[in-house]
Design brief:
Largest sheet: 5 strands, parallel
Strand content: 5-15%
Strand order of the largest sheet: 2-1-3-6-7
Number of strands: 7
Radius of gyration: 17 Å
Helix content: 40-55%
Distance between the termini: 44 Å
């Protein structure tokens, strides 16, 4: 019986043992519950018809691609969070998932403790990204040695602080990490990020990173 006080998670994972392990982990985590678990694209698509709080999705499914599920979820349930968990960590796949609307991207070598932490992180509005994934994003940003410049946002250029926030989003830092880095309050960081979203015309951290990648808005150093 599902508990209304728990956040409802949809899990799409085609490996039976992994699906069972993730289901058990989530159901043991305070405040979370697996509302439905699917073994592939078709089953996952059917699950998206009902309300949920978070989609936890693999990408390499036996009957389709998880990125297409991300697109459907972002279109039909824009309020829901989306977290990728995959063995695929190449630049092309990572960027495609973020552009489709994923809020975070974890590799399957993440520890159990890390996954529990990142479930809470993504629901809090952060963008959890595995270190290996972040390295791909850093590499993408540094292509052609782009210079720090204002965003092309219809005349609304980003401020220096907003560009710093954008860099931090791409590195997968939490709001608390950003606040510590710049000696700001978590609330102030959130307000900067909201302003950044408005100027870039996006609604998630994944979308913001995607825009930055396409427009080469910033130049990053290794974290």
């Amino acid at each position: 019986m599902q508990n209304a006080d728990r956040l409802q998670i949809l899990l799409v994972e085609d490996e039976p043992a992994t699906r069972a392990a993730l289901t058990s982990l989530i159901n043991r985590t305070s405040g979370f519950e697996v509302k439905g678990a699917a073994s592939g694209f078709s089953e996952g698509l059917a699950l998206l018809a009902a309300p949920f709080d978070l989609l936890l999705v693999d990408l390499d499914l036996h009957d389709g691609c998880g990125i297409d599920l991300i697109r459907v979820s972002r279109r039909d349930r824009p309020e829901a969070k989306i977290l990728v968990i995959s063995v695929l960590g190449d630049e092309r796949t990572v960027v495609a998932a973020l552009e489709a609307g994923a809020d975070g991207y974890l590799l399957k070598d993440a520890s159990v403790q890390t996954l529990e932490t990142q479930l809470r992180s993504v629901m809090a509005g952060d963008a959890p990204i595995s270190p290996g994934v972040a390295r791909h994003l850093l590499k993408r940003f540094r292509q052609d040695k782009p210079t720090l410049r204002a965003a092309e946002t219809g005349g609304d250029g980003l401020t220096t602080r907003e560009l710093q926030m954008l860099e931090c989003l791409a590195q997968g830092l939490s709001y608390k990490d950003v606040a510590r880095r710049f000696d700001l309050s978590v609330h102030t960081v959130g307000e900067y990020v909201k302003g950044l979203y408005r100027k870039l015309h996006v609604h998630s951290r994944g979308e913001a990173v995607s825009v930055a990648i396409r427009q080469q808005l910033i130049q990053l150093e290794d974290p």
